[in-house]
Amino acid sequence: MPDMGMPTSVTDDFAVAEDACAKINLALHVTGQRADGYHLLEMLVTFARHGDRLGFAPADADDFTLSGQFADVLAEDPGTNLVLKARDLLREAAGGAPPVRIHLEKNLPVASGIGGGSADAAATLRGLLRLWGVTLPSETVAGLALKLGADVPMCLKSTPLIARGIGEKIETADTLPSFAMVLANPLKGVSTPEIFRRLVTKNNPPLVLKKTPHWMEAIRTTRNDLEMPARELVPEIAEISNMLAAEGALFTRMSGSGATCFGIFETPVAALRAAERLHAARPDWYFQSTETFAGGA
């Protein structure tokens, strides 16, 4: 049954545990492209209480284990896991560090537009800094995060924010409220490079948030420029968005490059009941009720 947050986890028995919260793009505007190929983005981002969870403990030798609903997907190719890359980068920056056992409880779909791998990498940086007792300048840690991926600096903060550039220019969105939400994914992989290749217009209007006390009104005036090309590639995105709306969502949109969509609901109870009904209708798809963090908390 879908739940609203982080349940009891095997990682609770570790010396250090970190949540890797799902990253939700409430808005994503593609405003240009750099000479090196990176796209320039302007994004309104929030984070959900639901996500992956990592545990860290001293060990005689480095060890990495997996559990959770989507563990099997990562287990097929552990060499691409950003958790291991984050561990190795931080160890190098610290001038060496003792062996560590890391356990990842993989609750988020892989390559789904909600920053799962990036959130895992950011949680690894936070967790190992604590476990190893390492103190590094914030600029150094931010540099490591960006080296791991454009989304990792945002996930390192895991608080409502506005991000620009390739995602590294960040300002907090302290007045953004918490939203009751259902995350929905048809469990079809989406290639982010392919979505960007299908994006016809690279120089779209920037993110301008309407000055209003009602954030929902402001969000409705924004866009996700990647949603239309993603829908062409994965028609189920349109179907799952319509399913959320039919369950009473006040607003629906795709997050990131997809294929995860979100629906914002009036109350957490409404979100929970919608997720239960959607899961019953399509048990082969991913539906998760949750709440997002409020800014300034």
From TrEMBL:
Enzyme class of the recorded protein, top EC level: transferase
Binding site for ATP: P109, V110, A111, S112, G113, I114, G115, G116, G117, S118, A119
Keywords: ATP-binding, Isoprene biosynthesis, Kinase, Nucleotide-binding, Transferase
An example molecular function term from Gene Ontology annotations: 4-(cytidine 5'-diphospho)-2-C-methyl-D-erythritol kinase activity
The UniProt record lists the keyword GTP-binding: no
Residues annotated as domain GHMP kinase C-terminal: 223-280
Active site: K23, D151
Pathway: Isoprenoid biosynthesis; isopentenyl diphosphate biosynthesis via DXP pathway; isopentenyl diphosphate from 1-deoxy-D-xylulose 5-phosphate: step 3/6
Protein name from the UniProt record: 4-diphosphocytidyl-2-C-methyl-D-erythritol kinase
Every GHMP kinase N-terminal domain range: 81-156
Keyword Membrane: no
Top-level division of the source organism's lineage: Bacteria
Homology family: Belongs to the GHMP kinase family. IspE subfamily.
Coiled coil: none
